[in-house]
Model the fold of this input.
Amino acid sequence: MRAAADEDSSRVLAWRNHPGVRRVMFTDHEIGADEHAAWWARVMASPRHRVLIVVHEGADCGVVTFTRHADEPDTWLWGFYLDPDAFTQPLHQLRAWSGMEQQSLWWAEHELQARRVECEVFAFNAAVLSLHKRHGFAEFGRYQRRRGDEQLEVVQLDRAIGPGG
Done:
């Protein structure tokens, strides 16, 4: 992984707007250039946010975001997705997901000095829930979230990292 730079913005917008990504994201509408530019400027300038580009086998293929928890400075909320078009073989995609998960946890511990990472996943996204649980995440809550005309269940997961994690 590497820190995102302004030249990554258009590629990240294309990934955010991919139908396969929008299907599992909290924001499922097509994101316009102005909306994306405002989001990009805000997160890139914020000390509470980090945006990273996932690099797998030498190619940029996804994005990871970290947002510092407002009430717990050593806890970060983690978000991520890979470009669905970057992988033609399911096994390669699984390796990239697993590698991204491991790298993200390392980055959170060593670069952010995080002691806990949280993430939220729609309950219907069984593959990602399973991936997180294989990497030591545990469910700590559920809630309902409106997305468009749908009411969807969100699973909240966390994992301690660092010493004893």
Summary: The first helix runs from residue 9 to 17. The two ends are 22 Å apart (CA to CA).
